[in-house]
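Q: I'm building a small set of examples for a reading group on sequence design. Run inverse folding on the following structure and report the sequence directly after it, with nothing in between.
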């Protein structure tokens, strides 16, 4: 019995999934440990690896990752709170949000959490805060967009000419402006880029990192000392969703990176990574029960309880985010062409819109009432439901009524600042 067969059999026999709990997410912690080990084995000792919390913002997943040796990269105040709850310490956290409030920045600089600056207006705020906290232990850098182009998925490409992320290196005199910014601020001792994501080739990712490494060398040369000591190369290693094969591997990426940017593989710089999807995706699955089946227009339709609410990317962008499914009988036996007729199938979710499909027009062993479906490679950006924007609501909901347009708050609780929450811990 293979590992996934054992997982679904155990889930059924121990009633982890049944008529009441009809969709579950499962993380393989042994697999997660091996993945982290593979990351560290692929790179030399001057690399330190952080996990992009947005990829799976569950404390029960983050705590083991911390135990296995990962740091945490957070992109929102709630992710920061979740990382702290999972036991990560300030010195092992990087804050990368492009929309940090003044209070967020104050919290980071006061408590020594590293951060990457997104723009000049944010820099102005930090200038003021560094006067208030001159002894801050925060490692601070600029996020730089090398503007080298995108990959196959536009919505996840972060190094395009007009990307929302980072300081546009090739615009006007921005390169010289950035050098002057570093020269005037001895506390700027890191630099950051995140060139890749799903759909990006390894060579594109490495090229962006090469540009930033050369920029770090130029800045240090102009200053006359090695002021920049850390290069944060982001994450974005693509995941193979078409099979069980892990390709590209972390070793593949390290080899491409070493060929293009050999300087990183010396001890001159500390290098930080921010892998997310590549750490967790293949270590997680969703299991859901088939509630009903029917036929329409020659198509077999299996309606399950996992759809757009937990498979958001696939439901709304199926061509960019196709995922594999495997059917199992009510007893947990895998359905194959040897024990079931193969039919043209849509596997549907429970949401009331037509696009709520896990997969469409697929040749699958026939799914029946009360069967189960395993959705593969969903350990990242699926059942962790990160789009709740981190459990710290900043957006209150109001209704308007009456001739005077009276406002009534209808949200569950008022927004709190990160520091307010931290003070309660």
């Amino acid at each position: 019995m293979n590992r996934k067969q054992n997982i679904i059999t155990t889930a059924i026999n121990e009633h982890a999934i049944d008529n009441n709990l009809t969709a579950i997410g499962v993380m393989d912690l042994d697999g997660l440990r091996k993945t982290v080990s593979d990351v560290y084995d692929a790179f030399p000792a001057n690399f330190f690896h952080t996990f992009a919390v947005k990829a799976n913002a569950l404390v029960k997943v983050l705590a083991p990752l911390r135990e296995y040796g990962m740091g945490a990269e957070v992109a929102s105040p709630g992710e920061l709170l979740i990382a702290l709850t999972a036991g990560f310490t300030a010195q092992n956290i990087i804050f990368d949000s492009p929309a940090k409030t003044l209070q967020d920045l104050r919290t980071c600089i006061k408590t020594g959490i590293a951060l990457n600056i997104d723009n000049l207006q944010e820099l102005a705020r930090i200038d003021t805060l560094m006067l208030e906290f001159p002894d801050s232990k925060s490692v601070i850098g600029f996020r730089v967009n090398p503007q080298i182009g995108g990959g196959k998925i536009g919505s996840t490409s972060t190094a395009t000419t007009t990307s929302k992320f980072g300081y546009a290196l090739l615009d006007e005199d921005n390169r010289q402006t950035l050098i002057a910014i570093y020269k005037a601020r001895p506390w700027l001792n890191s630099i950051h880029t995140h060139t890749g994501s799903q759909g990006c080739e390894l060579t594109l990712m490495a090229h962006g990192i090469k540009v930033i490494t050369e920029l770090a060398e130029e800045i240090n040369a102009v200053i006359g000392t090695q002021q920049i000591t850390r290069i944060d190369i982001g994450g974005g290693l693509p995941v193979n969703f078409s099979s069980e094969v892990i390709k590209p591997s972390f070793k593949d990426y390290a080899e491409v990176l070493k060929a293009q940017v050999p300087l990183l593989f010396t001890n001159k710089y500390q290098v930080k990574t921010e892998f997310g999807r590549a750490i967790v995706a293949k270590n997680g699955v969703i299991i859901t029960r088939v509630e009903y089946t029917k036929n329409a227009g020659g198509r077999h339709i299996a309606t399950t309880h996992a759809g757009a609410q937990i498979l958001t990317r696939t439901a709304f962008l199926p061509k960019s985010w196709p995922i594999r499914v495997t059917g199992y009988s009510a007893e947990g036996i895998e359905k194959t062409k040897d024990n079931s007729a193969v039919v043209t199938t849509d596997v549907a979710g429970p949401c009331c819109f037509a696009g709520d499909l896990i997969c469409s027009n697929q040749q699958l062993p026939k799914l029946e009432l009360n069967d189960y479906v395993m959705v593969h490679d969903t350990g990242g950006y699926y059942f962790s439901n990160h789009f709740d924007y981190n459990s710290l609501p900043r957006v209150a909901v109001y209704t308007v009524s009456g001739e005077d347009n009276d406002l009534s708050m209808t949200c569950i609780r008022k927004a709190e600042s990160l520091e307010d929450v931290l003070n309660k811990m």
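Residues 117 and 142 are 5 Å apart (CA to CA).
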